[in-house]
Amino acid sequence: MTEFLPPPPATASPPQPAAQPSPEQLAPDGIFPPEGFRGLSAKGLSRSFGSVHAVVDMELLAPAGQVTALIGPNGAGKTTLLLMLASLLAPDTGSISVMGIDPVKDPTVARAKIGWMPDTLGVWESLTVREILTTMGHFYHLPKAGIPGRVEELLTLVSLSPLADQKARVLSRGQQQRLSLARALIHDPEVLLLDEPASGLDPGSRVALRRILRNLAAHGKVVVVSSHVLAELDEIADGAVFVNQGRTVLAQTVAQAADQGRRYCIAALDPAALAEALGNLGVEFSHGTVRAESVLVTVGSEVGAAKLLQDLMAAGVAVHDFGPATGALEETYMSMGVEQP
Predict the structure, then answer these.
(1) What is the CATH number of domain 262-335?
(2) DSSP of 229-263, one letter per residue?
(3) DSSP for 254-308?
(4) pLDDT in 10s for each residue of the chain, 341 residues
(5) Beta strands at 262-268 and 247-253: parallel, antiparallel or unpaired
(6) Where are the domains of the chain?
(7) Which residues are CB-neighbours of 314 under 8 A, at least 6 positions away?
(8) Kind of pairing between the strands at 262-268 and 222-226
(9) Concatenated DSSP letters for 16-78?
(10) Cα dihedral 120, 172, 212, 108 in deg (nearest 10)
(11) Among candidates 7, 54, 51, 19, which has minimal Cα distance to 247?
């Protein structure tokens, strides 16, 4: 795939991710969103379906220039939240701001700023891939003369040029996902909402998707991604919002997630020497489940991990593998003890 966005000017520095606040820090002075905030925000969102409370008093900040991951178990309210953010579902209570626009009061203006990629693409099966994107361009009132060029741009971006004139009904699941992404990007939105975008993609397409999303964020877009593949979110996200049972549980940057207590996997040429050294250092450990010769330890920070490795080497232990047992976001998620509903 090729990038369809121009690179940032050579003299400019790429946008630096702003710190993602915790729920307690979302509005420390009672102002929400915080003064000067630019991006997507939601406060006090609730939505029920009969007796089912899908979303309860949820909060979210997704700054421009960042990829924000939305993480939670099935049934946590992620899709319901995204539908409300996309102005496709009205909240029972609460407020939303899309780049300063209230999607409840001004849905047309808000939708012009939003690109929505659902977890399952609904397509006009009788239309070709090119015709679908062209139709979407007209729906968003793009200049008629510019639509063909924009369509070609996106076909190249998502590697669907060879299938441009094929009917949508012949597309595989992964190809439909790529078409869904192109459809969401047709009008160059300021805000991109993606529900399980990597579902059905092959490994190469997943890598390309990560590159596209990082490029969009680098150009100042708001990117919100819901996914079950936490390892991939570690690679693309700047911040994460964890939800469970319809509520916001935690919000943090990926850097904050990495610099907290987490498990490290250690392996040495001589497992007995490793165990002895850890015992002498007063470090508790358990044996790994993947490889019998590896051990798992819990370290409080990345600085602590570096110090432990240094101490092991100073003790003469020939360490050949040392690293986090899981990604930072997965570690946070597992530490929350979230139960499936």
Answers:
(1) 3.30.70.100
(2) -HHHHHHH-SEEEEEETTEEEEEEEHHHHHTSSEE
(3) HHHHHTSSEEEEEEESSHHHHHHHHHHTT---EE-SS-TT-EEEEESSHHHHHHH
(4) 333 343 333 333 444 444 444 444 444 444 566 777 889 999 999 999 999 999 999 999 999 999 999 988 888 899 999 999 999 999 999 999 999 999 989 999 999 999 999 988 777 888 999 999 999 999 999 999 999 999 999 999 999 999 999 999 999 989 999 999 999 999 999 999 999 998 888 888 889 999 999 999 999 999 999 987 777 788 888 888 988 888 888 776 676 666 667 788 899 999 999 999 999 999 988 886 656 678 888 887 788 889 999 999 999 999 999 987 777 777 777 766 655 44
(5) unpaired
(6) 23-257, 262-335
(7) none
(8) unpaired
(9) PPPPPPPGGGSSTTS-SSPTT--EEEEEEEEEEETTEEEEEEEEEEEETTEEEEEE--TTSSH
(10) -40
(11) 54
With a threshold of 0.90, does the pTM exceed it? no
> CA 124 → CA 129, 195, 287, 321, distances in Å?
9, 20, 53, 51
Please identify which residue in the block is written with the tokens 């001004």.
Answer: 106
Q: What are 7's two structure tokens?
A: 């690179």
Residue 39 to residue 68: CA distance in whole angstroms: 11
Residue 199's SS3 state is coil
Q: Which CATH class is domain 23-257?
A: alpha beta
Question: Longest Cα pair distance anywhere in the chain, in angstroms?
Answer: 73
State the Cα–Cα distance between residues 208 and 21, nearest whole angstrom.
Answer: 29
